[in-house]
Design brief:
The chain is α/β, with parallel strands linked by helices and 132 residues long. It is 39% helix and 18% strand. The chain has a 5-stranded parallel β-sheet with strand order 1-2-3-4-5. α1 runs parallel beside α2.
Amino acid sequence: VLFQCPPNMKYDPEVLDGFLADLAATAGEHRFVLEFRHPSFDSDEVREKLRAGGVALCVSDTEEQPATFAHTGGFAYVRLRGTGYDEKTLEGWGESFRSALGEGTDVYCYLKHEESASGPRDAAILKRMAEA
């Protein structure tokens, strides 16, 4: 289950702690992902809270805000929202996925829907690199 926070929502430790406590009440029933769109959430403190709560951090890569691979919560959740990824960039993501998979971490990667229909090509490159 993906929870996407609005871009104007700033980090408030009490709010995050309360939300994570509520999610813990249903632990084991679902996998949870949080997508923070405000830069105040980009901290080791937040990542550690997610890790402790078993909640994944949504990594969202866009042209406006390039991202790097990270995972918490025992699995990775990545949204590649850019357009026109070149093969070298996709290979970099795929290598990160392969490393995580090798550690026993599940990886969920979602590609942006494109009019150019590049998603199947991009998925094939990511799959090839993740399995290499």
